[in-house]
Design a protein that fits this description.
globular; single chain; two-stranded antiparallel sheet; 4 helices; alpha+beta; 154 residues; Nuclear Transport Factor 2, Chain: A
Length: 154
């Protein structure tokens, strides 16, 4: 992925790179540099975002990406994104992430999960996000199974 700054930062896949994987790597790089222009330039104007476990968080459009991530970069000034793994088939990209940082109120941000993305023309056209806060104390596997099976407290 090659990024250039001018009036607006733009990123395009390198000629010989796997375009979906290159987009994921550029996304991680822009996150770690907290470069909102490079970050937003990786999304299609009509980008569609879904969080299947949280349907009310769905949104569309690059402008909303800018608004959301500008707030995140401001609120977590030391954000570090680790792109744990990447797999692709055609224009579909599966990415595993770990995000860490410190909020401006000194509380910790620790999230992990998977984002499945569709890449069109070197840009992220859609995504389904399965990224959640890391639970430090939740009762372990027995509590999770009890809740899931209906035999524990809801």
């Amino acid at each position: 992925m090659t990024c250039s700054a001018g009036g607006e930062t733009t990123c395009v896949p390198d000629e010989h790179a796997d375009p979906p994987a290159a987009v994921a790597e550029s996304l991680a790089e822009a996150m770690n540099e907290r470069d909102i222009e490079a970050f937003v330039s990786l999304f299609a104007v009509d980008y569609d975002s879904q969080e299947p476990a949280h349907p009310d968080r769905a949104f569309s459009g690059r402008d909303q990406v800018r608004e959301n991530w500008s707030a995140i970069f401001a609120g977590v000034p030391d954000l570090r994104a680790e792109l744990v793994d990447v797999a692709s088939a055609g224009d579909t990209l599966w990415t595993e992430w770990r995000w860490r940082g410190t909020h401006t109120d000194s509380s910790r941000l620790e999230m992990a999960g998977v984002i499945v993305m569709g890449v069109r023309g070197g840009l992220i056209a859609w995504a389904r996000l399965y990224v959640e806060p890391i639970e430090q104390a939740g009762g372990g596997i027995d509590a999770a199974v009890a809740k899931m099976s209906g035999s524990g407290s809801q």
